[in-house]
Amino acid sequence: MTTTVLTIGERLRDWRRKRRLSQLDLACEAEISTRHLSFLETGRAAPSRDMVLRLAEGLGVPLRERNALLLAAGFAPVFPERSLDDPGLDAARIAVEAVLAAHMPFPALVIDRRWTILASNASANLLMAGVDPRLLEPPVNVLRLSLHPDGVAPRIANLAELRGHTLSRLRRELADNGDAGLADLIRELAAYPGGETYPRGGEGMIAVPLRLQTPLGELSFLTTTMTFSGALDVTVSELTIETFLPANPATAAALRSVAAG
Q1: Residue 183 lies in a domain
Q2: What is the spatial distance between Cα 146 and Cα 149, in angstroms, rounded to a whole number?
Q3: Helices 23-30 & 49-59, crossing angle to 10 degrees?
Q4: Same domain, yes or no, for 147 and 21?
Q5: pTM (2 decimals)?
Q6: Is the pLDDT of residue 1 over 60?
Q7: Cα(123)–Cα(257) distance, rounded to whole angstroms?
Q8: Which of 150, 181, 200, 216 could form a disulfide with 254 if both were Cys (CB 3.0 to 4.6 A apart)?
Q9: 166-203, pLDDT tens digit by residue?
Q10: Contact residues for 95 (Cβ-Cβ < 8 A; gap 6+)
């Protein structure tokens, strides 16, 4: 097998097409001429490091891929990638821990770009109760845990609706970043049983809920995501905090009663 190595020009062109931008659109955003951009994409001109970073910013390229663009252009990466327990990321870790604690008694998870759970608060254990222990062996993928037939899936009252929403979201992410690992995950999840329907709005509906059968009765959650704005570290830029908010008063009361006693 042979591996095709894309040039910096080919990589820039691919990202521009992913973003559905014309050369004129990107040239205006980066404040360069379309002629110069055309030369960069065809290899007739070589970009400087600053030019690579300027174009990457205009294209909204993730930090991990900005490093890859720099390498393709012959420059060293400029965005570090460290473990979350690295002392240099103390501020980020403390912020994450503060959000997890503040969200109690409602569940919250911290995940990376591949949906691996990095941290969670105590209330998140309620979501994972009763799953096959093998699915809880690190690294734990929250989507596999949720949709696997031996995971949370049998307790999700609106499984087909949630699957449809989740897989649509992942396919949009894949179209944006072309991550091969994400493509593999989508194929795996799509092969699980449970169907795939697409939610329709209705009276009182503001978002697709997670309706979960528990010993406390059916609990209903809405989810929100939180990320670090302006991150300059690859790891931090790929962190997402998923918070679960009660979708009705009964769910809120049930969780508060568990926390109180």
Answers
A1: no
A2: 9
A3: 120
A4: no
A5: 0.88
A6: no
A7: 12
A8: 216
A9: 999 899 888 877 778 889 999 999 999 998 887 665 55
A10: 228
**Block residue for tokens 């821990």:** 97
Q: Which two tokens stand for residue 92?
A: 């980020």
In this predicted model, what pLDDT tens digit does every residue of 204-254 receive, in sequence order?
556 889 999 998 899 999 999 999 999 999 999 999 999 999 999 999 999
Domain that holds residue 142: 87-159+198-260
State the DSSP H helix or E strand holding residue 174, giving kind and residue range, or none if neither: helix 159-177
* Band (3; pLDDT cuts 50, 70, 90): low
Residues 144 and 208 grouped into a single domain: yes
- For 88, the token pair is 């240099």
156: closest CA among 205, 221, 251? 221
| Phi and psi based region of residue 105 (left: phi greater than 0; alpha: psi -120 to 50; beta: remaining) | alpha
**Strands 117-120, 108-111: parallel, antiparallel or unpaired by DSSP?**
antiparallel
Angle at 222 (CA atoms; ends 218, 228), nearest 5 degrees: 145
Report in angstroms the alpha-carbon separations of 17 from 11, 13, 61, 189.
Answer: 10, 6, 12, 27
> Quick one: 99 and 36 in the same domain?
no
